[in-house]
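Regression check, adenosine-5'-diphosphate case 371:
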Amino acid sequence: MKAMSEHDFISVRNLSKHFGPIKAVDDVSFDIRRGEFFSLLGPSGCGKTTLMRIIAGFQEATAGDVRIDGQPMGNIPPHARPVNMVFQNYAIFPHLTVQQNIAFGLRKERLPKQEMNRRVEEALEMIKLPGYGPRSANQLSGGQQQRIALARALVKRPKVLLLDEPLGALDKKLREQMQLELRDLQKSVGITFVFVTHDQEEAMTMSDRIAVMNEGRALEIGTPSQLYERPGSHFVADFLGSMNFFDGRIVGIENGAALVETKELGRVVINSSAAGIERDSNVVVAIRPENISVSTEPVKEGSNTLRGYVDTAAFLGDRSHLYVSVNDGHGKILTLVQNLGGEASRIGGQSGEVWLSWNEDAGILLPAKTR
Ligand SMILES: Nc1ncnc2c1ncn2[C@@H]1O[C@H](COP(=O)(O)OP(=O)(O)O)[C@@H](O)[C@H]1O
Ligand SMILES: [Mg+2]
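Current build output:
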């Protein structure tokens, strides 16, 4: 078992939670640093909420343990833990004022009225709604109500805030605005945030580090750019952003580059310093659409160069997605063209011949899918 380092503020070790035959959380371990914005990202049903509820103390683990600031949480009831949780369906009391809603978070602390008012106003300033105390909660917009729910959690000054899809009920524009506000707030108050979302863009925008979960397991943990640029598994490569995948077999290795034979693209060359890559092993080649350059002029023959035809073009305004058929129709590649000076509408509009090329560093080698 790994020893806890002084940077590990929250330490989750071999945590499991079974509901009968369902392994909602399946042997998960990770460490969260003090002041970190840490996200649990994964599809619906992968165990995110269950994991949060165990950290908060609302649910007992089947096995494993959670430590916060070095202290084992096993026998500590929720209200005695240095954490507070904000839920997706934030329960604002509509018939109470904003002040009363936020003060509700302090009801157990029996503070003098003046101190209570001061703490509430301080929380209102954090969420940028100073002076809103006397207003009725049901007069607020959805975004403002969600901020009140946050203030109610912040007013207790927890060391850790657990947020379970807190922005899920908001529409897209407001959600994006709240993402940035929440991130700023977290940095300015310095509380450790554990944030749950199924939205990969949301996790990437906000987090210092992300744990990507699937079927109860934490598959990979890293910074957004590490996970996006160097995923180590098919699931993570697929879940973050868009990715092209091609099954292949390594037919040669030269100077750290792997020569991979694929049915769909023919032979491709991939720079790979990854250990354990062996000749004749089956692999999956992964290439991000934005790493493939698209030209309407013939490009010089070479490795990772293909002639193709645009099958479908989806114009998205700032960019287009082009589905290009290559290798005499054996392969199909998704590419992305930025709409610089009308480039994307020009290439997508003509539905003709194009040349694709990509750098030897652009491809990622993943283990072959085990079924
Ligand atoms: N109280 C429960 N009883 C039985 N199964 C549960 C219970 N809570 C969650 N589950 C199951 O555990 C799995 C993980 O659920 P959950 O943690 O809510 O996932 P997420 O929050 O990622 O959507 C799901 O299959 C869910 O149906
Ligand atoms: Mg959930």
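Comparison notes: The chain has two domains: 8-230, 242-367. The chain has a mean pLDDT of 91. No diff flagged against the previous build.
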